[in-house]
Structure formats: structure tokens, C-alpha cells
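Bench notes, bay 3.
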Amino acid sequence: MLNAPKIVELFEGVHDFNVDEPEEDFPILRMAFASWTTTARFHIPEFGRWLAASGSRNVYAFHRRTVQHFSWRRRQRQPEHQGQWVFKMPFHLMELEALIKTYPDAVFIQTHREPSQFMGSWNSLVERGRSLFSEPYPPHELGAEQLAFMSGMLDRAVDFRTAHPELEHRWVDVNYFELVEDPFGVVRRIYQHFGWTLEQEALDAMEEWQFQQAEKRRTEKRHRYALEEYGLTPEAVNAAFKRYRDFLTTRGIRTSRS
């Protein structure tokens, strides 16, 4: 990508990129020309309406074919290695029906944070990303657009989970503050829930990564943002995310700290 150096600089302290680190899998979906990331990168509501109406079944079929290729390559290099793919991208919540049909044995780890705490950060991320690819968009209009989009995405995830109680055993819900305060406790809970074996070698690698991240954060540029910059208030955000927040309360995921 021609703008790659600018992207790394622009997202420093916001969403860091590193050749040796994992990254979200949205580029696979983007290669199929039907990715929700495109609606975040550009203000193209018509494309969003088309994508919502047409669905993503074919896109996830392309995703699976690509991952099968990656798996084959890995087996050629490490035939003794039996790994499991971990996909990470918030937009998967828009297409859970297509995802579960494509990967019928998928399991889910979903992190949760109060929308009034993440919407400022999200708007800042979208604004920075668009600054490289499109004309400036008024911040208040961006705030309203992304409030509708993100609350709609989480409503779709609630709809899916409500409609598929038979899949609830495949879910682990993680409170954001629990993850920050006790990351290895969360890791152990996830492994225990899915019956995975947490090997000491893996735990040591996680602890080393955590240490390196803590050292990096002491010197890195911090991400600054505020809801008010995008014409939003905590009350307006809470109202837009009411169904999602009620879902968290009903499931016992929200805490007083949240």
C-alpha cells in the first residue's frame, strides 16, 4: 500500500502496527470487495445499505478459502504444528450468521466496554483513517454517523445471540476492566471454558509480551480524544446503545466499575 508509512505514523499510539505482531483479518474480506471496513474508511452510505441488503456469505466463503491456503502453507513448513486460527475484527459482529455458516465450529471471545467510553476513541480512529483517503468530514456529522453504525452493529450481535441460545456455550464474554486488571486470570478462564490446555511455554510468551507492551507504553505517544469533539454526550450514547447495555446487564457482564 502506497500510504503504508503514513498509516503507521498516523496511528501511532492509537492502533500500532508491527511486522512481528498479529493484525486484524479485515484485509481478507476487503479483497472480496465487500467489507464493512470500507464504510469506516469512506463516507459511502449507499455502499453500506447495499452491503446490509446483500449479505456477506460469498465474502466469508472467500475468507475461508484464503485461510485454507494459509493453513496449507503452514503445514508445509511446520507439519508437526497443530494450531488454531484466531480472527480479530469488530465488524465480524455485523455478519455472525454468515460467519457461523462458513465456520460452523467457531467459538467466540467478545470483549465489552461501556459505549460512552469507547465511542470517542472509535471516532478518533475513523477520523484519522479517513484523513488519508477522503475529504474532511465535519466531526459532528461523523459522530452521528458512527453512533448509528456502531450501535446498529452491536444490536445485530444481540439479535444473533438472542436468536441462537444453542450457541451460547461457544461464547466467553470479557469485561474490559477485568481484562486490564487481571489479563492472565481472563486467559485462564477462556482456556478453561473451552477445554484448552494452557501450556507453560505459551503462558511465558504471553507474560513476556505483556512486559514488552508495558515498557513501550511508558514512552509511546498517547491517544487523546473526547466525545464532545464529535457532538456526542454520554446520555446520547447510552440511549443509542440501550439494547446492548440492557443485554450486558441481563447477562451480568456489566459491573459497577464499568
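Next record in the batch:
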Amino acid sequence: MSDFTYPPELVIAPLAKPVNATVTVPGSKSITNRALVLAALTAVDRECYLGNFLHSEDTKVMLDSLNRLNFSLFGEPSTGGMKIVRNSGLVRTDRVIPALNAELFVANSGTSMRFLTAMVSLGHGHYRLDGIARMRERPIEDLLFALRQLGANVSSESNNGCPPVVVEAVGLRGGRIRMRADVSSQYLSAVLMAAPFADGKVEIELDGPLVSEPYVEMTLRMMQSFGLHAEQTAPGHFRIRPHTTGQSRTNYYIEPDASAASYFWATAAITGGRVTVAGLNRTSLQGDMRFVDVLAQMGCRVEECDAGITVHGAPLRGADVDMNDISDTVMTLGAVACFADGPTTIRNVRHIRHKETDRIAALATELRKLGAEVEEREDGLTITPRPLTGCEVDTYNDHRMAMSLALVGLKVPGVVIRNPGCVAKTYPAFWKDLESIRGS
């Protein structure tokens, strides 16, 4: 996964001057794990090469699970890519899932748990999916309910609507289903990616609102790239046609991670400097690109060029932002808000209480420890800047908490990050890359 080792605590030294840097961030975790599922499902007697592959804890558990399901995966050390193939000489190609049974461990990777649950429902056999203690607290019943409507025999082993999940798979039939996606859009993405391999056409109607909608758009666009036919026919309505073999993709490039880029754009905002993140533009699949628009709303200048997108810092003003569609950047904005003139309100992100930790409660707790005034609500929070003082901050084993809270330490002496190694979940080299901008 990586060669990085991490101390139990990490002191963040303030920057001596505004940052002026160009940064390259790793491949998107969201795109990487989707690409792995889509490549595995569509690759028969041909290899699919994934370029700019992200090597992290979340993608490692997905790779391990696909190996246990008897897909063949080969890393390319010279390019950093990954090859996936399902060889008909080794496994039966009439099975969407080559393995007849498997025990899958996904740690705390939500994408892996949701995507693999739907994926193995296409198989014929017994599959069990489990994770760490926090994963056993993260809800999945809405996905299981949707899969049951397609004929799947899936259940929560503890009967509490959370993992471990047990799948007695006999494939999926087509048909019309209703499902919820107001806790996680990954439930819908999981069903969308599995649906082309059901016995017939699948139609999905959402029951209630959809959170993090750009991630569903990402899924639909990626499915199209892999030769799968899925479309949104009306708000909350989706139609997926059965897959036709012979349309598989042979290579796919993974975009740089826009969520990871947010930390470096935020660095420009907090320090009044300039940061360019290479390789990203407005045509990106990733909704988190909208984070730069939030920074512009707060006073920064955003510039797009051939090299990437640049944020120029400026005096910051508070903002009132609905972040439902870019909720992975809530903690990043929480750090930026501490240095604004006036309060910042973050709204409509109730669903992030079910992430790696309760991110609303955790962010409120740690920003208060640093000295900010924080009003916590069920669906968000308001952060009012106050004089900040460095302290030891907890990360709750949540990579985004660690990376976001570190930004405060670029301006405030004495910030110490506990358990900095949790960044390995999606960005093992984060501390190295953050340090690299110091001398830029």
C-alpha cells in the first residue's frame, strides 16, 4: 500500500510566509473503487488497465476482496497503474462473480462495503462482508432492502441493519424497485453498477431525497465509459439496461482526487498565498470541485489554466453554504472558517454523522478545543472565529479530520495531530506533500 510510517502524534509547524506552490495529489478514491468494480464486472478474457491508480487502505481492501472473489489483479510498478483480468481459462465466464464463496474484510471502507455487497449479490454462493468496529455501526439496511427487491437473499448478521452482511447469492433478477438514498448515495451507486448484470432491465425509483448527488452522476458517467447503459430518466428515476458483452473498456485514467485537493486550496485561503493543484479542471467527474466556488464566495480568487486550478488567498469573510453535494469537504471548510471575518454556517449535511465518525460532532468538539465558537445542529454547524490556541486534537481515526485540522496548525502554533496515520485510508503521502509546500 505504502512505505510510510507514522508517529503516534505529529506537531504541525506554522508556515513562515504565505504558501506559493503547485501540488499534485493522488488519484481519486471514489473513482478508483468504482473503476475496480466496473473493470472486474466487464473484463472477460481481456485486461483493463487503470492509470493513476490510488494505493491506499480503502483501495487495498477492495483489491484484496476482488482477489478473494477470484479476479486477477496485477500492479504495474513502473507506471503506478493496475491491470484487471478475468481469464476464462482459469474461471468460468458464465459466472459474473468467479468465486462461489468468500469472506471479505473491508476495514472501514464504506465504498467497499456498499459496492461489494451489491456486486456479490450477482454471484452464486455464500459471501460474508465485515469490517472494523466502526463499520459495524454504519447503516446498510437501505441497500439490503433494495437488493431484496431484485431477488437477493441478503441480511445483517446482527439483525441491526449494520454489517456484518451475509449474502446467499443466486444472482439478481430485473424489475422495478424503490429505495432510499438519504443516508448515503453509495447505496444507489452500488445498485446502479450491479444492475446491468441482472437477468433483465432494472428501474429504480428513489423514496425520498438523494444526498451527495454528484457521486451518483460520477457513477453514471463512469458506467457509460465502461460500456454500461444507465440513465436518469427523471428526478429520482433511473433505468439500467442489461449489459452486452464485447463492449468492455481496456484502459481508464483515474482523475486526481478533488477532495484531497481541497486541503491545498484551503492552505492558500488560510495563509493568503497561492496554490495550484495540477490535473484538475471544471470537466472533472468529481462534485468536490465546487469547493473552490465556496472559497471564492469567501473572498478568494480562483483561476483555471492548462496546468490545473489555482486558488489565490485573500481576506476571508464568513459564508452560509449548503454542502450536501460536497460533504467530504465540510471539515476542510471548518478549518478555513476559523480564519474568516464573521461566522460561517454549514447546512444540510446530516448524513455525515454516519461516516468514519460522526463528523459534525467531532468537528465541533475539536474546533472548540482550539478556541473557535461552534454551534452544532442536527444537520450542520455554525463556526464563529475567536482567538485560537494550539492543542492536541483528536482525529477519531478519520482521515479527513486529520487532514483538515492540520490546516489550522499552518497558522496557529502548538497544534498536535493525534493518530496522524489515519490519513493512509485515502492519502498515505499527505504529510509528506503538506511538508513539501513549506519550501515552495
